[in-house]
Amino acid sequence: MPNLPDVVLWSIPAFVLLTVIEVVSVRIHPDDDAAGYEAKDAATSVGMGLGSLVFDFLWKIPIVAIYTAIYELTPLRVPVLWWTVPLMLLGQDFFYYWSHRGHHVIRVLWACHVVHHSSRKFNLTTALRQPWTTWTVWPFYVPLIAVGVHPAALAFCSSANLVYQFWIHTERIDKMPRWFEFVLNTPSHHRVHHASQGGYLDRNFGGILIVWDRLFGSFVAETERPVYGLTKNIATYNPLRVATHEYAAIARDLKAATGWRERAGRVFRGPGWQPTPKSAGHQAVTEPVA
């Protein structure tokens, strides 16, 4: 097994320090147009982050078992060397893009990811607002295991990707240098991703690199100031409700559905999908989501 560091654990002191610096900077130099901080919202985000550590550990048990079985079955092996690690990071970031995009356009996956978008604030504590049902993510990385990437190496790359994305959850940084903005994900790009305006919906899915969005047509530059949150916001700071509210909504819609086609649409179509009246002659329409 590769001996790789736990980058999330090592980064916790930096998370705390940077959050304190951001809170102080907001207090000293507030921006009237920025979303800023709210104590209850920040506490919910931190609580969601702590809860995700527990649930991720539980989900990790069956996921590691599946990955290990696939790894043992494949004859391919990617050694952990100084030049292969950047390639594995690149591969993980590519599949992260598709995982992230999939979690925006398939409702049952969105039920997991919506947690991260449920805050109407945008600050470093928002980065900690993580879902508790990440069992929906693992299938997207099966190709990496199948080509011989060790599960521990994949875990390292995923952690590095997560740590990188911490600093982009801020309004205190306007724009990075042009070359940086072109290649890498930045606070400006990620503010667009968290916005609820129509032109910003379902955009900028990249983790470390923004080039995937440029290549696959999902990139939008920040122009107008974002309005954060969901198209239909939830009025709760209860972590359990934040973690499960979309699953509960799916259950209600399934109960009210009139047929199997509608039930399938409620689960596997877009989060805003609604069946059209039979008189319209079409099966369904979709609406964008935050």
TrEMBL record:
Keyword Membrane: yes
Stretches the record annotates as Disordered: 271-290
Cellular localisation: Endomembrane system
Keyword RNA-binding: no
Keywords: Lipid metabolism, Membrane, Oxidoreductase, Transmembrane, Transmembrane helix
Top-level taxon of the source organism: Bacteria
A Pfam short name: FA_hydroxylase
Membrane topology summary: Multi-pass membrane protein
Principal location class: membrane
All residue ranges annotated as the Fatty acid hydroxylase domain in the record: 86-218
Membrane-spanning segments: 7-28, 48-68, 80-98, 140-168
PANTHER family linked to this entry: ALKYLGLYCEROL MONOOXYGENASE (PTHR21624:SF1), STEROL DESATURASE-RELATED PROTEIN (PTHR21624)
Protein name, per record: Sterol desaturase family protein
Organism: Streptomyces mirabilis
